[in-house]
From TrEMBL:
<dbReference type="InterPro" id="IPR029063">
    <property type="entry name" value="SAM-dependent_MTases_sf"/>
</dbReference>
<protein>
    <recommendedName>
        <fullName>Class I SAM-dependent methyltransferase</fullName>
    </recommendedName>
</protein>
<dbReference type="InterPro" id="IPR038375">
    <property type="entry name" value="NDUFAF7_sf"/>
</dbReference>
Length: 122
């Protein structure tokens, strides 16, 4: 075992190759959010976001820290013409509707300090 700072150890526990947010089950395997943990909560939250987007004249919704895309899937079901993008440290979930764009979060935003998993060439 190699000694590392508290910050690096915490970072690797969350975002390293076997980190919490990279697990197949995602955060939903360990705790519930309003998008997927409360029966009907995801649909209710999605509906509120759609109303807010419509009233504001927004045509795109970006979910940063999208997990496995549960909230975006609910929004897509309610407002199929709204452009949707999910951003997270994991790849695009396989069961996400095809109309939803997905970005893997850039290392510069997720890795402070950078870990070997997120290291990018200079």
């Amino acid at each position: 075992m190699v000694w590392q700072s508290w910050q690096a150890a915490w970072h690797n526990a969350l975002y390293g190759p076997d980190g919490f947010y990279r697990q197949t089950s995602g955060p939903a395997g360990h705790f519930a959010t309003s998008a997927q943990g409360i029966p009907g909560g995801g649909r209710l939250l999605a509906g509120a976001l759609v109303i807010l987007a419509e009233r504001s004249g927004c045509t795109r919704l970006v979910d940063v820290g999208a997990g496995r895309g549960e909230l975006l899937a609910e929004v897509a079901a309610i407002a199929p013409t709204l452009q949707l993008t999910g951003v997270d440290v994991v790849g695009r979930p396989g069961d996400l509707p095809g109309s939803i764009d997905w970005l893997v979060s850039p290392a510069a935003l997720t890795c402070r300090p950078r870990c070997a998993t997120c290291e990018t060439p200079s």
